[in-house]
């Protein structure tokens, strides 16, 4: 079994952008579960000679309609099945109530969580990180998915124990 890494977080923080950066140019799409493409998408990535599976999930919210509930269930299942979790937050918007809600959910799992502060291009990392450290996750990584900054170092850290 390849190491499996789930990407979770609220909508619009850059989960799919990160997924695409990590899986692109590898003919990466392993599976798009029929009818569930917005919920869970599995791709293949590689760091050095180490291949891994990446699972992109739909955004977690506090909404409780049918679609939101299904997306949340899919994300929780992805977390359950993963070896590592990337909890992505938006460094520009800062910590939100939804982030706190997701953090609360994540604390219920034994899976190691990496907090990933995205959209930090052009920002001073000391300033960006202060609020997010309150969530209590360790390690914390600052990246820019769209500018492809810090992404390599992130995956080296995530996979170092394999
Ligand atoms: P998702 O809903 O979490 O999957 O987020 P998406 O990957 O769809 O990205 C949401 C928006 O954030 C898009 O407009 C992206 O272009 C933008 N975005 C993603 N990564 C970055 C980043 O590193 N920096 C900035 N400034 N924008 C980003
Ligand atoms: Mg997405």
UniProtKB/TrEMBL annotation:
Residues 3-162 form the EngA-type G domain. GTP 1 binds at residues 9-16, 56-60, 118-121. It comes from the Bacteria. One of its GO terms (molecular function) is GTP binding. One of its GO terms (biological process) is ribosome biogenesis. Keywords: GTP-binding, Nucleotide-binding, Repeat, Ribosome biogenesis. Associates with the 50S ribosomal subunit. GTPase that plays an essential role in the late steps of ribosome biogenesis. Belongs to the TRAFAC class TrmE-Era-EngA-EngB-Septin-like GTPase superfamily. EngA (Der) GTPase family. This is GTPase Der. The gene is der. The chain holds residues 1 to 162 of 464 of the full protein.
């Amino acid at each position: 079994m390849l190491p499996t890494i789930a990407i979770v977080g609220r909508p619009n923080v850059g989960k799919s952008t990160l997924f695409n950066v990590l899986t692109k140019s590898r003919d990466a799409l392993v599976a798009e579960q029929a009818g569930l493409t917005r919920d869970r998408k599995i791709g293949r990535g590689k760091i050095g000679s180490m291949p891994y599976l990446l699972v992109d999930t739909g955004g977690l919210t506090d909404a409780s309609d049918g679609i939101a509930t299904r997306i949340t269930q899919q994300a929780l299942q992805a977390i359950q099945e993963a070896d590592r979790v990337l909890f992505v937050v938006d460094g520009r918007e800062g910590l939100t109530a939804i982030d706190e809600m997701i953090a609360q959910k994540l604390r219920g799992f034994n899976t190691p969580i990496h907090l990933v502060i995205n959209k930090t291009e052009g920002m001073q990392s000391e300033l960006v990180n202060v609020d997010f450290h309150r969530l209590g996750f360790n390690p914390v990584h600052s990246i820019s998915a769209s500018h492809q900054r810090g992404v390599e170092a992130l995956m080296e850290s995530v996979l170092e124990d394999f």
